Amino acid sequence: MGNGYLRFAALGDSTTVGLGDPVPGGEWRGWARLLTESLKSSYDVSFCNLAISGATAAIVREQQLAQALAHRPDLASLMVGVNDTLRSSWNADRLRSDLLETAGALVDGGATLMTARWHDHGAVLGLPRVVVRPIKERIEVLNEVYDEVHATHGGIRLDLALLPEVLQRECWSIDRFHPSELGHRALARAWAERLRTAGFELPMPDLEPSGGCPPSWRRDVAWMVTEGAPWVGRRARDLGPWAVRRAIGAGR
Questions:
Q1: pLDDT digits (tens, 9 = 90+) for 195-215
Q2: H or E element that contains 158
């Protein structure tokens, strides 16, 4: 399948944006770009990263889908939904509708779909048990939706909970929510393995750090001050009261 023209559209949230993998110039690289670099060894690749930090499934459908379809992708990654689980506006039915509609449109447009089952973010984040439990339950619902997406539309899928790197601290940035460069490289490599199994030709992305900004405690502190702490604050105000009410109700 190599030596042809390949269009790749990446849809999703901050993980697909590449947060946690900074490169010189103030940009983010991330797993999708690393995977694209490997694909370019065998294909003439047109890559379109439409991901938006903080995106929910509705934002992907409303703001990214049309641009993705205009790109006429052969491959389309759809990795979103975790931000939905972290909001008090959580609505499982709406999430299901948004994901199924987006996936269906991409497949109808000729794309091979790339989707993931998510790991337990609450455990990785080290949040209090009162918050972890409802997040875990919502992640289970999100994964059930992705099971339905895969059963309906097929494609290539990745179960993040089965990746050993998920439990390795060095694979996460300082906020423990976004992958580090090593985490993004591991994610790109896992996708490459599944693409090769599906018949695509590409070398495995390297796990050795290269081309990015070297680790810096100054950058980590700046990140937490400008991005990490405000994010935690927003999620605490949004999800915290609901989680507490739910825990009190469950204890009765």
A1: 999 999 999 999 998 887 776
A2: strand 156-159
State the CB neighbour count (10 A cutoff) for residue 56.
23
Q: Average pLDDT of the chain?
A: 86
DSSP for 33-60, please give it.
HHHHHHHTTTSEEEEEE---TT--HHHI
Q: Are 156 and 106 in contact (CB under 8 A)?
A: no
Count of other CB atoms within 10 angstroms of residue 70 = 11
Question: Is 3.40.50.1820 the CATH number for 5-251?
Answer: no
Which residue in the block uniquely carries the two structure tokens 């509708």? 97
- Against a cut of 0.90, is the pTM above it? no
Q: Domain residues of the chain, as ranges?
A: 5-251
Asked if residues 180 and 21 have their Cβ atoms less than 8 Å apart, the reply is yes
* Distance in angstroms (rounded) separating the CA atoms of residues 44 and 144: 35
Alpha carbon of residue 217 to chain centroid: 25
- Count of CB atoms within 10 A of residue 97's CB? 15
Residue 18 structure tokens: 């590449």
- Of 57, 124, 117, 62, nearest in space to 84 by CA: 57
Going by the DSSP 8-state scheme, the letter that residue 90 receives in this structure is: -
Tokens 């909970």 belong to residue? 161
For the stretch 190-199, pLDDT in tens is 999 999 999 9
Q: Which residues pair with 205 in a beta bridge?
A: none
Find out whether 60 and 12 touch, Cβ atoms under 8 Å. Answer: yes
| H or E element at residue 183 | helix 181-197
Contact 204, 192 (CB under 8 A): yes
